[in-house]
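R.M. (postdoc): so does anyone remember the format we settled on? I'll just put the structure tokens first.
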């Protein structure tokens, strides 16, 4: 398992290291598992990161926006767009690497990312009921009971 993770990490670094490496002919594992968005597309979908679309703040000072993207040029679907601060490159890389490998109903799905020279952005599926963290702390409703918390942990 360690060898697989190590090889995956190497492929990940190739994609996120040299800016030209993501444009090579043969895609890396990361590029195959999730979509690469342009900064221009994400800026447009968030209306230039309009404050009215801000739905929260993440770790490391990141901001989370609600946005809509088109799928195959047809229907819109709602996503959450997390914009990292410039000094959080390692956190951005870790987030993409981890979520590209995980697929589980109790974990938010990674849709894609933007690795622009000056912008690091992650695109997630939108969770209409809010984050698990908010439910654990009881911010919007009553905090989750311990039995449900254990079920979630076992599921993950």
């Amino acid at each position: 398992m360690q060898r697989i993770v190590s090889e995956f990490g190497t492929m990940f670094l190739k994609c996120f290291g040299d800016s030209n490496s993501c444009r090579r002919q043969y895609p890396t594992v990361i590029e195959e598992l999730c979509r690469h968005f342009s900064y221009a597309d994400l800026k447009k979908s968030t209306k230039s990161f309009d404050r009215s679309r801000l739905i929260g703040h993440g770790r490391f000072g990141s901001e989370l926006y609600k946005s809509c993207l088109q799928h195959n040029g047809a229907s819109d679907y709602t996503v959450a767009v997390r914009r990292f601060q410039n000094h959080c490159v390692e956190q951005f890389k870790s987030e993409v690497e981890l979520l590209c490998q995980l697929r589980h109903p109790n974990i938010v799905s990674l849709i894609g990312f933007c690795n622009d020279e000056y912008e690091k952005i992650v695109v997630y599926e939108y969770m209409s009921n809010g984050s698990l963290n908010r439910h654990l702390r009881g911010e919007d409703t009553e905090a989750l009971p311990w039995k449900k918390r254990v079920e979630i942990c076992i599921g993950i």
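R.M.: ...and that's the designed sequence above, right after the tokens. Also worth knowing: The two ends are 18 Å apart (CA to CA). The longest strand covers residues 76-84.
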